[in-house]
Hints:
CATH architecture of the largest domain: 3-Layer(aba) Sandwich
Oligomer: single chain
InterPro entries: ATP-synt_VA_C, ATPase_F1/V1/A1_a/bsu_N, ATPase_F1/V1/A1_a/bsu_nucl-bd, P-loop_NTPase, V-ATPase_su_B/beta
Keywords: ATP synthesis, Hydrogen ion transport, Ion transport, Transport
Radius of gyration: 25 Å
CATH class of the largest domain: Alpha Beta
Helix content: 25-40%
Function: Produces ATP from ADP in the presence of a proton gradient across the membrane. The V-type beta chain is a regulatory subunit.
Protein name: V-type ATP synthase beta chain
Strand content: 15-25%
Number of helices: 12
Largest sheet: 8 strands, mixed
Pfam family, one: ATP-synt_ab_N
Amino acid sequence: xxxxxxxxxxxxxxxxxxxxxxxxxxxxxxxxxxxxxxxxxxxxxxxxxxxxxxxxxxxxxxxxxxxxxxxxxxxxxxxxxxxxxxxxxxxxxxxxxxxxxxxxxxxxxxxxxxxxxxxxxxxxxxxxxxxxxxxxxxxxxxxxxxxxxxxxxxxxxxxxxxxxxxxxxxxxxxxxxxxxxxxxxxxxxxxxxxxxxxxxxxxxxxxxxxxxxxxxxxxxxxxxxxxxxxxxxxxxxxxxxxxxxxxxxxxxxxxxxxxxxxxxxxxxxxxxxxxxxxxxxxxxxxxxxxxxxxxxxxxxxxxxxxxxxxxxxxxxxxxxxxxxxxxxxxxxxxxxxxxxxxxxxxxxxxxxxxxxxxxxxxxxxxxxxxxxxxxxxxxxxxxxxxxxxxxxxxxxxxxxxxxxxxxxxxxxxxxxxxxxxxxxxxxxxxxxxxxxxxxxxxxxxxxxxxxxxxxxxxxxxxxx
Length: 464
């Protein structure tokens, strides 16, 4: 016999407090019945000996302290899952919003997931091709990696997210058995419509699962959206052996929602008002990426976050950088030059890149070409600083070649079309062509064999 509890002790924002509740569990789902007969759903987020605090998904408007009835369901929030979720669009808590009807479930899974045993994890190796040279060539994404994109307000990270979703594939099997799970949190309605339309037009929707939480949806749903997305990814990866790329945007909106709910619970704030458990909460999302020994599937994550005031030391990018395996940083100065995507190469890195590129995975010369491009572009910044003091006319001939290299590098390697899908071979060829601008003596990161081939082919091209 299920017990219904009549009345509430207190109500604040999206939270309700129930007194005298027995046998409740953390994260358990509540069924809330209003005086009018309307039913809503809540989730227990705090328990004491005498009280339970619950979040109400659809808001607390119209809820009465005296006539509201609550009932424990005995289970956490679970998602109905089947392979039919591919090509479907859901709201922030996994309810279909594409007018295609409910999902006929093969399985129900707890959205909080289960932590991967570190011993059972397999080391990420294989290369994922995004078709974007600045990422593929210089901060390569590896299957099973978590590689965030640090952006800022007004920068084209939404376009970049759609382009990656449309173009990404596992290079080793030409994209077979590959799926995209896309989770948007706190986005405006026009942005949500852009995502939906862009996925449909690109053809990516058929292999994608979309979770859209708009800015007008309850803040509570924003906390659950990435968990629903990752649960869908785990199902496809470990039940159907698919390689899944999860794109989550915007993690900053998620953290703002976490701060708002923490404030409602009157918790003691930490840096910038965020809760002290922000690190562990973000880790509970990011660490759901990876590969498991004995399983053919994999989960790769690209979380996208907008840095408040473009501050990379802000708690959100700061903590994200500690948990993840590198970062792609977008640069406002490049964006203002109309260079797309405006990837700032020098602060961007992929810590797993060295183990997923080279002869077995991409191109044999990839590691050396990448190192030389980094080194040469770093020197460009020094020479540009010098030129701003003494003037470009006073630079040496070699320094002027570096200035030319820097301009060409930004326009031809970093810059590309919004629908341009480059192979890794095309990216490496652009790198070859750019390095030929510089004198042979400046290319100290390349082996003699590669130098010989580079300049021999240049001589052959000239003769022809």
